[in-house]
Design brief:
Number of helices: 2
Distance between the termini: 71 Å
CATH superfamily of the largest domain: Thiol:disulfide interchange protein DsbD, N-terminal domain
Radius of gyration: 29 Å
Largest sheet: 5 strands, antiparallel
CATH class of the largest domain: Mainly Beta
CATH architecture of the largest domain: Sandwich
Oligomer: single chain
CATH topology of the largest domain: Immunoglobulin-like
Length: 202
């Protein structure tokens, strides 16, 4: 898209990429110096605003998700008030890695697995991840823990004492950050649900 700022007077037209600025003949001749200063400031501000707008439009998108998630529980049912393990499985896109649950201060955003507050279940212990790779990360100049390809995290939950019998869904959130050795995506949160069968009490 071509933008044009013009004085509406005959004169010289200067081009800055896709932006054209037309100056009056008096401005070109060097006359009316005091009168030209506000105009020059206005043109400069306009060019700066257009440049910022162009930069915002040119930012690349983050692309597809770098981690695919699924959540499950054991197939056998659990009674109200009982404890059950929610297993999260992550599959990392080739060339990327996701940071694990334990990280040093000033390092990447650690993974956080949190059962959402509900009448179905609440957190009942700390999540545990499968063994992570430990390596000094040049992006942070620190030793980090991360996963490539497939990994799992188990989160213990306690089923609500008054949870209704039958098939239910345990809502759970995962916050994580991924990098590929060149760039890091901003931390993001995904919300999952794990199916669970609640047996009638008694």
């Amino acid at each position: 898209m071509t933008q044009k700022i013009a004085s509406h007077l005959d004169g010289t037209c200067l081009s800055f990429g896709s932006i054209s600025v037309e100056l009056s003949s008096e401005a070109v001749a060097g006359k009316d110096t005091l009168a030209r200063k506000p105009r020059a400031l206005t043109i400069g501000a306009g060019l700066a605003a257009l440049a910022l707008a162009g930069a915002a439009v040119a930012q690349p998108s983050l692309g597809p998700d770098t981690v695919s998630w699924s959540a499950s529980t054991p197939t056998q049912g659990v009674k109200p008030g009982g404890r059950v393990q929610v297993t999260l499985r992550g599959v990392v896109q080739n060339g990327w890695h996701v940071y694990g649950l334990q990280q040093l201060p000033d390092g990447p955003t650690p993974m956080r697995v949190t059962p959402d507050a509900s009448d179905i279940a609440t957190a009942d212990g700390q999540p545990i991840g499968s063994p992570a790779t430990k390596l000094k990360d040049p992006s942070f100049n620190l030793e980090t823990q991360f996963y490539e390809h497939d990994f799992t995290v188990t989160a213990p939950v306690r089923v609500g004492a008054h949870a209704a019998a039958g098939q239910q869904q345990i809502p759970i959130s995962v916050r994580f950050q991924t990098c590929n050795g060149r760039i890091c995506q901003p931390p993001k949160t995904v919300r999952l649900s794990a199916p669970v069968t609640i047996r009638a009490d008694g």
